[in-house]
Amino acid sequence: MAKFNIARLRGKVASATAAATSPIRSEQVPSGRTHEGAPGYQRTVRGELFLLAVSNMVGENTFYESGDARDNRYAALVREATAADPEWTARFLRWLRSEANMRSAALVGAAEFTKARLDAAQPGMSRQVVDSVLQRADEPGELIGYWHANYGRALPKPLKRGLADAVRRLYDERSLAKWDSSARAFRFGDVIEIAHPAPLAEKPWQGALFAHAIDRRHNRENAIPDELLTLRARAELLALPVEQRRALFQDADRARDTLRAAGMTWESVAGWLQGPMDAAVWEALIPSMGYMAQLRNLRNWDEAGVSDEVAAKVAARLADPEQVARSRQLPMRFLSAYRAAPSLRWGHALEKALEGSLANVPVLPGRTLVLVDTSGSMDSGFSSDGTLLRWDAAALFGIALAGRCERADIVSFSQATHWQGRDYPDSLVFPMRDHEPVLRAVERWKSDGYFIGAGTDTAGAVERHFAAHDRVVILTDEQGTGGDVGTALPASTPLYTWNLAGYRYGHAPSGSNNRHAFGGLSDSAFTMIPLIEAGARAEWPF
After folding, report:
1. Which pLDDT score, from 0 to 100, does residue 16 have?
2. Which end of the chain has fewer CB atoms within 10 angstroms, the N or the C?
3. Does pLDDT of 9 surpass 70?
4. Does residue 469 contact residue 370 with C-beta atoms inside 8 Å?
5. How far is C-alpha 432 from the chain's CA centre?
6. Which of these, 251, 462, 253, 473, lies nearest to 368 by C-alpha position?
7. What CA–CA distance (Å, rounded) separates 480 from 30?
8. Residue 255 lies in a domain
9. Spatial strand order in the sheet of 427-430
10. Angle at which helices 86-97 and 103-119 pack, to 10 degrees?
């Protein structure tokens, strides 16, 4: 006899879910229109800023918005959020650079935070925010470049002090060797002369490093200080005649030790050799390369003929969950590596790495409808080289979620259209296969024609495919045509929108009443779904 799985219980759960709230909130009645004309819901400043920041590659055009317009909107939102709640904005920017790993958006945000505080004559906080977002040694120069381009050559004291804090923390011999070059508008020496950082007492070599960086910037012929052992070793290698350099790799251990002592990265070795990077060179370099550098070079190693023994060690590192977590790579980077390096010796490792990067994707009970937007506007790049597209991200996250649901229907949707002699379907149901790796499923999605590429009839897709599911998850840029998505399914059914573009208007209300929005290019916000379904108040992930 049934005691627990009864309608009354489900009603209680539904009531708890309906009462839950989430942080990205909007108006409850649409006041605008999406770019394709559907009813559009304006979000709060925090909500709009969050969704834009976690999907914004600064300076990059999107389907509906130019890079300049997008950047101006982002800057205005940061300033508005700073004026309203500087503590929240400070936490957000620190999280954006660290856990969300959005570098450029965080740097711009710190500059605009500082500008807003200065304009309001509000002291404090700016120095700490600037320091918190500068996490790589080339970034102080990047931040100065942004300020000069937008607000002139004079840097305010809070910005200088934040830069100085970061310089003391980030500048060392290896970072100077890696990032300081004449290709940069603001070199290490420029940053030091602008910010005037005092060397740290626990780094007795740092004063000599600062003086040498300034000498380099002004092309002075002063000798490298004795304290800077790495840079002196590097200078010796650079002085070696080109025809003698490759001989170093006859002994891999010696080559590795010599190059490490000189702070030579794989990029600098490639230029130093002035010739091809063969297997012997790569095998000497690989053990000292960082996780991201290894991920980027899999195809190069296949082409160079790196041995299976060395490749197996790399694959083990790539698949290690701790290494994946420490690397903070976005899930899409593993798809990019998989496509670039089709060799079978990397496939399993990249799949395991992707699993690690998607650890926050929840296991959902019951029946879930997953709708993946593959309209034309989702055929839009978010990586600087254009190789990763928003619909790639939508398909990857959608397949990963569907694979962890107790039962799921996953659908690619667009809009039925006949254009230039071609018929576009309104939607296609994607057949999931038991135990199929996510990366292989994403490639099957691509090869079997599930990227449709027409309009965006989101409300129509909900109405066609909803069949008393326990929840609906839509991965989209929200720029639909036609009806109101929020009213296309019963009010008692939770609707979760995963936004991948950060445009101004959403396609449904969000924040309460079974209507919620999340976003970004990482898995972090997926943790909100189980909280909401437990009737809890889901908060910001920082």
Report:
1. 59
2. N
3. no
4. no
5. 27
6. 473
7. 14
8. no
9. 427-430, 407-413, 367-373, 471-476, 495-499, 515-519
10. 160
CB 123 within 8 A of CB 84: no
**Residue appearing with tokens 């979000």:** 43
Say yes or no: 434 and 412 in one domain.
yes
Is residue 540 within 8 Å of 24, Cβ to Cβ? no
In a domain, 182, yes or no: yes
The reply to whether 62 and 22 lie within a common domain is no
Q: Are 327 and 522 in contact (CB under 8 A)?
A: no
My answer on whether 456 and 429 are in the same domain is: yes
Q: Exposed e or buried b for every residue in 490-511, given b needs 16+ CB within 10 A?
A: eeebbbbbbbbbbbbbbbbbbb
Q: Does 538 reside within a domain?
A: no
Same domain? For 131 and 204 the reply is: yes
Q: Please give the pLDDT value at position 15.
A: 57
Q: What tokens were used for 369?
A: 């409808």
Q: Is residue 539 a part of any domain in this protein?
A: no
* CA pair distance 536, 88, nearest whole angstrom: 21
- 363: exposed, middle or buried (Cβ count in 10 Å: 0-12, 13-18, 19+): exposed
Written as six digits, the tokens of 90 are: 């400070």
Q: In terms of domains, do 31 and 121 share one?
A: no
Q: Of the candidates 184, 199, 230, which is a domain's last residue? A: 230
Number of helices (H), then strands (E), in the chain? 26, 11
Number of domains in the chain: 2
Half-sphere exposure of 391 (CA within 13 A, CB side): 25
Q: pLDDT (tens digit, 9 = 90+) per residue, 319-333?
A: 999 999 999 898 999
Give the closest residue to 479 by CA, choosing from 12, 92, 110, 51: 51
Choose among 246, 241, 281: nearest CA to 265.
281
Whether residues 514 and 390 share a domain: the answer is yes
Cα–Cα distance, 489 to 433 (Å, whole number): 27
Contacts by residues 309-316 (CB-CB < 8 Å, ≥ 24 positions apart): 310/282, 310/283, 310/286, 311/345, 311/346, 312/345, 313/286, 313/287, 314/286, 314/349, 315/345, 315/346, 315/348, 315/349, 316/349
Whether the CB-CB separation of 429 and 410 falls below 8 Å is answered with yes
How does residue 18 score in pLDDT terms, banded at 50, 70 and 90? confident
Q: Which of 182, 204, 230 is the last residue of a domain?
A: 230
Q: What is residue 8's three-state secondary structure?
A: helix
End-to-end Cα, the chain, rounded Å: 46
Whether 76 and 30 map to the same domain: the answer is no
Give residue 14's pLDDT band: very low, low, confident or very high (50, 70, 90): low
> Based on the domain organization, do 524 and 407 belong to the same domain?
yes
Report the predicted TM-score, pTM, of the whole model to 2 decimal places: 0.90
Which residue range is the domain that position 372 belongs to? Answer: 10-42+357-533
- Distance CA(371)–CA(408), nearest Å, equals 10
Label residues 313-351 b or e (16+ Cβ within 10 Å = b): ebbebbbbeebbeebebbbbbbbbbbbbbeeebbbebbb
pLDDT for residue 274 is more than 80: yes
Query: In sequence order, what are the beta bridge partners of 497?
Result: 474, 517
pLDDT per residue over 194-207, tens digit each? Answer: 999 999 999 999 99
